């Protein structure tokens, strides 16, 4: 995700890009309570085991953990509660069609602030097999090695 002006990254699902092939991404809002927003702004959200599901024409995120706000007292909600995502109707219908396709899942990639609003980046993803994960690790390592050699070569040529 490219960070635009006026955005601040709050939480990221790093495991998602390793576990899944990302086919398409959507930006969506979330229905939250005030104490949840304060907790997210403090960086106390976890997307690791979260996923989204389309139910009755609405999209919900399940398994996302938002730690209770310390000064929230009675206004705190269940940290693992199901939260509604805000999308256009045509996007919801498209996500429903894609999520019903074999092997596709709706996975949250990141939570960020955009002009004061909490947004979630939702991805349509297909699970990787073990050999795919090994191939992506090998590709990442080879790119890192090539960059390191180029950088070292540039240093040696300046002398």
Description of the molecule:
The protein is α+β, with helices and mostly antiparallel strands and 159 residues long. It has two domains: 7-128, Small protein B (Small Protein B, Chain: A), CATH 2.40.280; 129-159. It is 35% helix and 36% strand. It has helices at 14-19, 34-41, 89-100, 130-158, and strands at residues 7-12, 20-30, 45-46, 51-55, 58-62, 65-66, 83-86, 104-114, 117-127. Strands 1-8-9-2-7-5-4 form a seven-stranded antiparallel sheet. Strands 3-6 form a two-stranded antiparallel ribbon. Strand 8 and strand 9 (117-127) form a beta hairpin. The radius of gyration is 19 Å and the shape is globular. The two termini are 38 Å apart.
Overall shape: globular
Distance between the termini: 38 Å
> How big a fraction of the residues is strand?
35-45%
**Main pleated-sheet profile:** 7 strands, antiparallel
Strand order, largest beta sheet: 1-8-9-2-7-5-4
CATH class of the largest domain: Mainly Beta
Give me the secondary-structure category.
alpha+beta
For this structure, the quaternary state is single chain
The number of helical elements comes to 4
Number of domains: 2
**In which range does the helix fraction lie?**
25-40%
Radius of gyration: 19 Å
Mean pLDDT, as a whole number? 82
Give, in order, the helices and strands: EHEHEEEEEHEEH
